[in-house]
Design brief:
binds zinc ion, alpha/beta, five-stranded mixed β-sheet, binds phosphoribosyl ATP, 8 helices, six-stranded mixed β-sheet, globular, 15 strands
Length: 282
């Protein structure tokens, strides 16, 4: 089974890292057009991101990892299997920052530069607004200052490119991120491999940003500690040799870790250990 991924660019590293995390290893030092995984029945097809939706739609690859923005723009007939949690960005309309914006009507009769004409035309049609769409493949953000367009429709992530070009974001048309896509009508065997990949990806998603925490706690504080640390089912409690004490184990979100540690210390927790979580398989 073939999986198409971006050969270089913003999604390449994280696509390979995700595949690696779910146990699909490829030798990226020998990156070629086609690379075989050494321990899973798949091969990777390394392509420009623009080509991934059509290659999956026509069956040259069964799966693909690509930005939702590319899938929506190309309009190919593929199944979006999962959002993958990286490559987050949005497709926005932006105008010179000194302009006053009064809603989509602003764009009537205006020239808008973009590399995403299809998504833009669909948006303008849905608002009943007629505008001129100028297709530009790179450096769209300089179009207004260069006098090529009045506005732009482009990918925004931090927003600093817009600020650097004296532009402001006025409409978000699509929230995008990397997605796993699949050709329609796949064989029963390929469906089984896909289900295994999804199972592993779900586990990778759950374990991301999680820490394993264990500590000693006075038995008298146990009930309170369990309220602070809800685990998947409930935290693990083990007796200690010292009378009146026990050991409590659980999993916490990394961004809540210090808040929880402070609460646990306040009720008498001692010897707190925090460990990285490799996999959580529910
Ligand atoms: O060579 P190939 O065709 O494969 O790559 P590419 O140059 O077309 O795409 P690439 O590698 O730049 O981006 C691949 C995918 O990453 C995109 O299709 C999006 O799904 C996703 N992505 C996430 C982004 C960004 N963030 C992003 N910030 N793609 C592009 N940008 C650019 C944007 O075009 C703009 O110029 O970054 C600039 C804006 O960034 P901020 O942070 O200043 O707002
Ligand atoms: Zn591209």
């Amino acid at each position: 089974m073939r999986i198409a991924i971006q050969s270089k660019g913003r999604l390449n590293e994280e696509s390979l890292a995700l595949l690696n995390e779910i146990g699909i290893e490829v030798d990226s030092s020998k990156r070629k057009y086609l690379t075989k995984a050494c321990n899973f029945p798949v091969e990777l097809l390394n392509l420009r991101d623009d080509d991934i939706p059509s290659v999956v739609a026509n069956g040259s690859a069964t799966l693909g990892i690509v930005g939702l923005n590319e899938v929506e723009e190309k309009g190919c007939d593929v199944e979006i299997v999962d959002r993958l949690g990286f490559g987050a960005c949005r497709l926005c309309l932006a105008i010179p920052k000194t302009e006053i914006y009064n809603g989509p009507e602003y764009f009537r009769g205006k020239r808008i530069a973009t590399s995403y004409p299809n998504i833009l035309k669909r948006f303008l049609d849905s608002k009943g607004v007629k505008a001129e769409v100028e297709v530009i493949t790179g450096s769209v953000e300089i179009a207004p200052a260069a006098g090529i367009a009045d506005a732009i429709f482009d990918i925004v992530s931090s927003g600093s490119t817009l600020v650097a070009n004296s532009l402001k974001e006025v409409e978000t048309v699509l929230e995008s991120e990397a997605v796993l896509i699949c050709r329609k009508d796949i064989s029963v065997e390929d469906r089984q491999i896909l289900e295994e990949i999804r199972f592993r990806m779900d586990s990778a998603k759950i374990s991301r940003g999680k820490k394993y925490i264990l500590m000693n706690i006075p038995e008298a504080s146990l009930e309170e500690a369990v309220k602070i640390l809800p685990a998947m089912r409930s935290p693990t409690v083990m007796p200690l040799a010292a009378k009146g004490w026990c050991s409590l184990h659980s999993v916490v979100d990394n961004d809540k870790l210090w808040e929880k540690v402070r609460q646990l210390k306040a009720i008498g927790a001692e010897g707190i250990l925090v460990l990285n979580v490799d996999k959580i398989i529910p």
